[in-house]
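Q: Hi! First time doing this. I have a protein sequence and I read that you can turn it into a structure. Is that right? Here it is:
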Amino acid sequence: MKGSGLPLLLIFSLSAAACSRDRGIQAAEGAKARPVTTEAAQVRDVRRQVDVVGTLAAKEEVVVSAEVAGRVSRLVHDLGDRVAAGTPLIELDAEKLQYRADGQRATLDQARARYGASADGDLPPLDRVPSVVSTSAQMADAQQQLDRAKNLSSRNLLSRSDLETAQTRFDTAKAAHDQALASARQLRADIESQSSALRLAQRELRDAVIRAPFDGYVAERLVSQGQYVQPQAPVMRIVRLQPLKLTAEVPEKFAPWIETGRDMAVKVDAFPQQVFTGKVVRIAPGVNLRSRAFAIEGDVPNPDGKLKPGTFARVQITTDRVERAVTIPFAAVQSRYGTNRVFLVKDGQLAGREIVLGDRLGDRVEVSQGLEAGTQIVASDVEQLADGMKVTAK
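A: Yes, that's right. Below is the predicted 3D structure, encoded as structure tokens:
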């Protein structure tokens, strides 16, 4: 029995020695300092920027309507087509309108012929209308006869009845001349009326071709080929996409910083790697009492139509406000559960300190609270660091 206990005691002694050696190695490794890179917090001039969210909208949007009744004979453009101002969108059947215009033209030509004017020439003055010229000549002749009769009658060479006959002839000629002048005036008024009716018929004939009011895109087609439309019936919706209008609200505290003409950097989810530029063009004069913000509008160039109306946008507005601020590398910030902190090196160990961040400045970030300029902090690789960890600063 005594002989069998000796090997067990030897095994136990060897195991204890091995465990003691492992603990020593682990302790040595735990005491090994980790090298870190430090940097002093710096004071820099920061140009303030205002970050808001907004919505892109069409600069102009209109529902084009028919101005005359007719059947849709041709759809010149459809959904998504790019159109220029004045480009035909829809053509209506214009046969009846053409007949109406031709009839008005014939009626006008008849009136001009009665007046004594050519089909397309200027209207002659009233005293050159044929009926007026004829009655004017008759009145002049009657006037001469009357003057001669009065002369003879004054010398008792003409009877009183002959004098009265000459006077009656003159009065009749003068009445005929006045009637001719009145008829000429009425005919001239009829010509003006017929001219207006012809212009209206020609306008309705032109309106049979419905055209784009401005450069833009067809956002919606509201009629089909063969459909009969009435005046004021909507046929297409046209939107202008160059430039787009951006609408947003800015908190009231930034009111002194925002002016028209300020540059805007716009980002949208559809193109996350691209920044679109624009300018502030309008600023609301008052603050919304509910949101405590004021509205702004901006123009965003969109020459290729990549941006779509209704898109959500993130906007950064550059201002002239420059302030001195403490900044550190963004890589020096460790974020955990909604708090941010940096690590200071004290006596070879890390000490965490909570900070409040301000604006992001490229690869740096502003520290608004919790850190003074010149304080040395760990500048990078902070995600695996913890309070109390032994480090060697370099």
